[in-house]
Structure prediction request, 378 residues.
Amino acid sequence: MARNQSKAKNGFPHFMLKEIYEQPEAVRRVIAGRVDAAGRIVLPGLGMSEDKIRTFSKVTVAASGSSRHAGMVGEFMMERMTGLPVEVDFASQYCYRDPVVAPHELTIFLSQSGTTIDTITALQVARRKGAKSLAICNVPDTPLTQNADTTFLTHAGEEVAIAATKSFTTQLTALFLLAAFVAQAHKKTGAATESAVAALQSLPERMEGALATDSECRKSAQLLYRYKDFIYVGRDIDYPIALEGALKLKEISYIHAEGYPTGELKHGPTALVHEGLPLVVLALHDKQDEDSMLRYGKTVSNIREFLEREIPVLAIVNASDTEVAALTPCVLAVPDLPVLLQPIVEVIPLQLLAYHIAVLCGRNVDQPRHLSKSVVVE
Ligand code: AGP
Prediction:
């Protein structure tokens, strides 16, 4: 058994690391055949025509854990690309709050396993209330996919480690494709969508670029693994990635970590911040996007202020960054991409950082305590 397991790890010390490295290939599979030569999104497997898509006036997403974080990124993608209102909820809350379902509502349920009881129950509630349901799932033929009106399989391949990694980035890619498809149906495609769709084919290669931060992530982990608390921050579409980075760290290293919108720190959490609490700051930018540059400017001045207060800062930046790098050497740089695709690469150094910290803490990385891959109890 032990020998089979080590063979299945393909030379990697843990499944989690192997699965982190499998992400570019997994994302390549999600994209394959889904963008035609004219740059149009084709999703024949979705079982929903563009006419049907045009009837939707609202989207709701319900999911748990990392899958909910993916849904939160999807909210930014979908609202920005389609103009439709999007709401995201914890599946475990959606099923008890007697949600109001709009007459033309698409309800999306995201799950790696398709067996998460909270998400299955939320799907049943939505269907009872008349919503059209779409399951975005990695595993085919699960209770979730069998109960949904239609399914988008992410084909990330088997994910053995408890920590979601490749299932997360493939969910993000699927949500991006779906948002672009809905935008196309609603004839809403603007410059931001077009430049992101044009960059999609280069995404796997950019993810490989993000994997190249691995040795830097290990060095950062060596500097940080003895701290007891961490705060992760990000603005706008980067905020759910801050939540995801904090979740990765806490679930596999058992170190306390929280994620906040960067702009929210001053409304309370900043009282916690001191020289003994590292801040992991998502400080990405997209030169083609004015709003992104405004957010970046604010984040740069936040970082300057944190450093003046002698707070340990680790910043995730773009390869073309110069401003943050001029303030601190503690940066992890990922390749540049349009803002709508950035979350798919910026999460990679956060996965690697959590992995290396957990290893240094001597944790059972693939099988953290009290957790299971499929949460079948409420
Ligand atoms: C993430 O690393 C977790 N293991 C966990 O939050 C997971 O995403 C959650 O339990 C939902 O699982 P699902 O995607 O299989 O529904």
In short: DSSP finds 16 helices and ten strands in the chain.
